[in-house]
Design a protein that fits this description.
Blueprint: E1 7-14, H1 22-37, E2 43-45, E3 62-63, E4 66-67, H2 69-80, H3 88-100, E5 103-111, E6 118-125, E7 131-136, E8 158-159, E9 166-168, H4 177-184, E10 190-195, H5 200-213, E11 216-221, E12 223-225, H6 238-243, E13 248-257, E14 263-269, E15 273-280, H7 283-287
Helix pairs in contact: 1-3
């Protein structure tokens, strides 16, 4: 691997969006970027679907073989608040990244400008405010497939930075061993997972991946509560579905793990917080001494991964 800078300061944002409102969610993100910028981070990371939020617990009126017209109204509202890339929301986020002079990673619900299909996507901006990487989730998880489509492109983009390549997989994509390996093959030094996964088992997963990939794992989780849903604007069956949720719908758990599988920052639960950490980037090459998953500990003559990337 090439020489990299010794230190990367990360600002990891655990926060709630303004649910199902793209304009206000983007505005809140800009405000949090400016707040984080006071500590002069090199990289600012937000959770999955920060614009316009994750519709946890909602079915949009789907049952097998049937859709309700009331549920369609809520899906249309969510689709209207999913963003086209580029667009006014990405312009505002890019300007904030430039103002902060930092790399920025943020999860969005993306609306394709031609087909109209929604994608669970993640953007990485460079410090000059430009979009460098757009990643669409390869396979939405479970009932997410009723909302978002499978990625049709933008599979494994990485951003080249002074701290090494920065890559991203969204939530349960990290349970796909070959997808992880596709990032390892690109030399990822900072592995970002924007997610909405507060399961305790997930903490075991992220430590394993950091150790396996010999990279820093940035676990960017969401925090939001039941009363943050715009329940008064929703239609049946959404109000009953939301009322059945716990007070805290997603507890967070955001944290950073080093290339040896150790916590750099402990998981943060049940609140909004900007987590700061100075990463010793020289741990990435040092960790490859005894294990390199795509180098000296690989057997490319026996095992081969073919990636149809685009």
């Amino acid at each position: 691997m090439e020489d990299i800078e010794d230190r990367c300061r990360v600002a990891l944002v655990q926060a709630a969006p303004v649910m199902f409102n793209k304009k206000k969610s983007a505005e809140k993100a800009v405000s949090l970027i400016r707040k984080a910028a006071e500590q002069k981070p090199d990289l600012i990371v937000f959770p999955e679907l920060f614009v316009p939020g994750y519709p946890y617990g909602m079915t949009f009126g789907y049952t097998v073989g049937h859709r309700s017209e009331e549920g369609r109204k809520d899906w249309k509202m969510y689709a209207d608040n999913s963003i086209i890339v580029p667009g006014p929301e990405t312009d505002a986020l890019g300007a904030a990244a430039k103002e902060a002079n930092a790399y920025l990673s943020i999860g969005i619900s993306e609306r394709d400008p031609i087909s109209g299909t929604l994608y669970n996507s993640n953007l990485i901006f460079t410090p000059d405010g430009k979009i460098d990487a757009l990643h669409r989730k390869l396979k939405p998880t479970g009932a997410e497939r009723l909302v978002w489509g499978d990625a049709d492109r933008h599979y494994f983009p990485v951003t080249q930075s002074p701290y090494g390549p920065i890559g991203n997989l969204i939530c349960w994509e990290s349970y796909m061993p070959l997808a992880r390996t596709a990032l390892y093959q690109k030399g990822v030094a900072i592995y970002i997972s924007c997610n909405t996964n507060d399961n305790p088992e997930w903490q075991n997963t992220i430590r394993h991946i950091a150790l396996e990939g010999r990279c820093y794992f940035i676990n960017a989780d969401m925090f939001f509560t039941r009363d943050m849903y715009p329940a008064a604007s929703l239609h049946d069956p959404a109000p009953a579905e939301i009322s059945a949720l716990p007070d805290i719908v997603c507890r967070g758990g955001s944290c950073i793990v080093d290339p040896f599988g150790h916590y750099v920052t402990q998981p943060v639960w049940d609140k909004e917080e900007i987590i700061f950490a100075d990463l010793d980037m020289q741990k990435v090459p040092a960790a490859k001494m005894e294990f390199d998953p795509v180098g000296h500990y690989a057997r490319n003559d026996v095992l081969e991964l073919i990636v149809h990337d685009k």
